[in-house]
Amino acid sequence: MASSMVEDQDKRLEAVYMFKKRLENAQKRLLRDRGIHQENKQKILEFIKHLKSKGRSDPTQIKYLIRLTRLASMLGKEFSKCNKRDIQELVEHIRTKQDWSDNTKEAYKIALKVFFPWLRG
Q1: What pLDDT is attached to residue 19?
Q2: How many CB atoms lie within 10 A of CB 53?
Q3: C-alpha distances out from residue 58 to 8, 64, 71, 91, 93, Å
Q4: What is the dihedral of CA 109, 111, 112, 114, to 10 degrees?
Q5: Closest C-alpha among 16, 61, 14 to residue 6
Q6: How many CA within 13 A on the CB side of residue 83?
Q7: What average pLDDT does the segment 96-109 reach?
Q8: Which pLDDT belongs to residue 17?
Q9: Are 44 and 30 within 8 A, CB to CB?
């Protein structure tokens, strides 16, 4: 009975927020972005698959996909060629963004903290 109620709630949330469609659209935007290295696109998509395999929700996957797409664009180089200094400079750039709230800045830093250890494996 309880699992049926959870499934019904999940279906209602999907109908309202269209998470699957939003995830698909975010993936398409990533793939179309000419300012992001192809290698980075592949790594971001692999990471999203990893999140899915770990049972992370569609909204969580969408958030990481959007944030990592923006971070890859800001970085301007292949993830595999990034060193500690590159990441520190990126974090400093995030920290000084005037048009981002503190919560947004923190969310982007968390995305880096989760993504790069996974990437370095």
Answers
A1: 85
A2: 8
A3: 16, 10, 20, 26, 28
A4: 120
A5: 14
A6: 1
A7: 96
A8: 65
A9: yes
